[in-house]
Structures are given as C-alpha cells and as structure tokens.
Amino acid sequence: MRIALAQLNPTVGDIAGNTRRAIEAISTAHDAGAGFILLPELVITGYPPEDLLGKPHFVEANLDALEEISSVCGNATIVGFVDRVEGRLYNAAALCGNHRVLQVYHKRELPNYGVFDEQRYFAAGDSPGLLELGGTMYGTTICEDIWVDHVAEELVAEGARVIFNISASPFHAGKGDERERMLCERARSNNVWLAYCNLVGGQDELVFDGRSLIVSPSGEVVARAASFQEDLLIADFMPEGKLGAAEHLVAAPGPEEEVYEALKLGLHDYVTKNGFTDVVIGLSGGIDSALTAAIATDALGAEHVHGVMMPSCYSSAGSIDDSRVLASNLGIEVRELPIELPFDAFETTLAESFRGEESDVTEENLQARVRGTLLMALSNKFGWLVLATGNKSELSVGYSTLYGDMVGGFAPIKDVLKERVYELARWRNGSGSAPVIPVEIIDKAPSAELRPDQLDQDSLPPYDVLDAILSAYVERDRSVDEIVAEGFDSGTVDQVTNMVDASEYKRRQGPLGIKITPKAFGRDRRMPVTNRFRG
Predict the structure, then answer these.
(1) Is the distance from CB of 306 to CB of 283 less than 8 angstroms?
(2) Taking each helix axis from N to C terminus, what angle separates 56-70 and 15-31, rounded to the nearest 10 degrees?
(3) 401: phi > 0 → left, psi -120 to 50 → alpha, else beta; which?
(4) Catalytic hit among 73, 96, 143, 184
(5) What CATH number should be reported for the domain holding residue 274?
(6) Which residues pair with 386 in a beta bridge?
(7) Measured in whole angstroms, how far is the alpha carbon of residue 322 from the centre of its chain?
(8) Residues 250-288: tens digit of each pLDDT
(9) Partner of 203 at 20 to 30 A CA spacing, among 13, 45, 47, 69?
(10) Cα 324-329-332 angle, rounded to 5 deg
(11) Which domain holds residue 225?
(12) Is position 313 annotated as part of the catalytic site?
C-alpha cells in the first residue's frame, strides 16, 4: 500500500479554501497511486479556530465541508475536522473511503498549557482509533495523543502495526528535533511503524513547521517532508508491514536556519492571509530594523517592502549611510522623511505647558512618536502594513515607546532576544550569494539615537547578561533568588525583573509577533497588568 502524507497550509476560518486545498492534495495523492492519505489536524477549519467554535454555523460549515471532501475519497483518507455529537464538540479525525465517511475518531488527550486551550472548546474522546484495512490493523491518533505513552501502548496491545498521527504542532526553536526524538522513541518502544502528518504555515503568532515523518519500528526516520512549506510525502508499505521506497528524506534545518525560516513563513502568512501585499519599515541604521527588512524581503519580495529613514539631529551620518546600503543590498525602495520639523512643532505646541521643565525622556519619546505617526500615515495612504522592529530583550524590559517604535500591525522579531538577532543577521549574511546586512550595522554599539552619544547600555545591562536573565525569568519562570544563585549580580537581577514586571501594560498594547521560543509574550505568557507580586 502506498501512503501519502499531505502537509498542508490552511487558513483559519477559510473553510471553502481549505476544502479546495484538501481536495487538490487528495487528487494529487490519488494520481501518485496512494491507497492511504493523511491530512493534518483540523485541516478543514485551520488551527487554532478558537472562539469561532462558539458559532454553530461555523461548525456546521465544517461538517458540510467534510461531506464534500469525503465524496472525492475513493481510497482511504484521514481528514482532521470538528465533530459535533449531542451538542458537544470534538477535535476529530474522519476516515473516509468509498466516497463517504466510514469512521470517526475523537482526540483523547486535549492539551491545556502554553499556547493550547483545547479543553475550553472540546470534549475528550474515550475510545481508541482502531481500523483494519487489507488484513493490517492501524491506529489513529491526533497530535497530543502521541505525546503520552499510554495511547500508543493501547493501540499496539489491540493489534495495531502502524500508527497514524495527524497533527497541528506549533514551532519553537528546537521543537522539530524534540518532536522527532519523541516520535522515534514512541515507535521504538512499541515496535510499530509511525506516520506523522503535521500542519504547516503561519497563524497569527504561531508557526507550524511541517516536517512530517515516517518512522520505522526500530526508531529510524526513513522519510521526512520539508520544513516550513507544503509537501506531499509518499512511501510504500509492504504487506508484511515493511516500508518500501520512500520518495524523499529531506534534511532537517539547522538552529539558525529553522528560526529564520519560521520568521519568514510567519511574516509571509500573516501579511498575505490578512489581505496585505506590501509592508513598510522604519530603517534606523540599527540591527533590529536591518534584520526585519531582510526577513520581509525574503518573505515577500523586494518590490513589496518599503523602507523609511526618519533622521533627526541626533541621527549619525553612519546610520543614514548604513540604511541606504542595506536598502540597496536588498533591492527595496527607501525614502527619507526627516522628523525635525514635526518634532519642532510638537515642542512649540508644548512649550507653555513645559515651561521651567528640563528636557528628559519625554522629548526622546516624542521623537519616536513622530516616527510612528509618519509610518502610520504611509500605511493609511498606501495600504502598507507597518512592521514594528522591536526585539524581545527591549520589549521585556520596556525599552520601547508606546505609540512610537511599538507602532505596527505586526512585529516579526518580537520573540527574538537581542543576542539571537545578531546570530540571525550573521547567518543570513552567510546563507546567500553575498551579505545583505552591512557589517557596520552588525558591529556598531546599539543606540536609539534620541539624545547625544546615547547607547542602549547606558540604560540596560550588557545584552549577553540581560538576555541570560530574561531567559531565566521570562522563559523558564525562575525566581529572583534562583537566578542570583546561578551567579548573576543581585542588583542587576532586581533591576531587570522589576523592569519586566512594570512593562506588562506596554506589551499588552503592542502588535502580535511570531513565537520562536518555548515561552513567548502573548498566548504563552499571560501575566496580570495590575500585579504586586515580585520575584
């Protein structure tokens, strides 16, 4: 029997479009001779559908779509959908064949941690997904089912020789390798073949990396689909349960490549799935805007990326020149909109109210807000999506200006710590035919350039120290005492953690950004704004 894993990129809520995409994949797999086809978890609705599941007509449309898909399924096909039984909803897999739905399996293990809240929407199934075809027993599982030991063990005990898993497993750095190790162990410990079909694509802050797999009973990956793109993985199973020819074993990406590709895919899908074609980015001459511009150009094409230089009297000639070189290297349009005139107008308007007050961070923030206003004006006039360029280190400690540099419809590097920004920039420069980010941008000391001779480290610890503390406090939930015990200066730890806690109100008002760490701000880390707990 030839099996096909259709790694698809659906759009949440686009039931008609997702149905067309599913039917096209089924047709292609049929033409390739596949007798068994897997489609990902909730492929009809997209994942996660969230509170769309509270709309009865949405669920009904998904059920109608399943009937349409099943009508073209002459051979066995597993399709992820939302089932409704006696008013309860289930995350479900339909076995279709002979042009109808033959059997339905309800997901048993419902994740309710991190970005997942399936228990809010779904009831858990209580029966194993067993089916027999051609004298061979198969087991069906959905995503989280395969992450726990007992589901696979029960299926094998009931005679399953092959386990299918349809999934919507979101990406974070290292997740693909972690998932692969788990699947290999699951296959090896149960002496069973395992076919894993994952979703691919961007959905708001989530990215699904694909990387569908076929794993042998010895725990060896014998077939692997591409990462971060749609793919059709085909392999032949012999009657005795062995694997014949597999059409491809795509190499897994390295650490920097997988993060860069996740950022690129997440940005591309957010832009295109929300009806935009072009983006606009403020180019400061700094590393964050340079990396954002490179990702956007790779994701959307140079003709769809617009750079804006907004110099002030504090902007260095080097930063302006570096921005021009960056734009030339990327092949993107760049325009210059100096901010001195509008900034002077604000100062004139506020002069009486500020009489007798010294200049301080207020005037610095005004410059950032003038820039944000100009970017939003271009967005309104031309329909371009503004990309915010703040990184996770800055957003963690509030080193950002509300309604200024935080302005934007999407923040691609929101979950990227500063040290990783540099790593990604260097990787991108080494991955193409020629570097695109000027070395001067990479080598210069970071600065907001909002006052004379300003440097980020006038206000913040060195980024290697800052990022290590943020990784412990934000991503691993370590206490202040635990972080100090790791060898960090107690005063620095207090400073950083207090800044993190005090900046929650800012982050709540910022744009969405792509999740690339195990714990990102937003869906992962949801802290109260009004909060007196410290440490």
Answers:
(1) no
(2) 20
(3) beta
(4) 143
(5) 3.40.50.620
(6) 280
(7) 29
(8) 999 999 999 999 999 999 999 999 999 999 999 999 999
(9) 69
(10) 70
(11) 2-250
(12) no
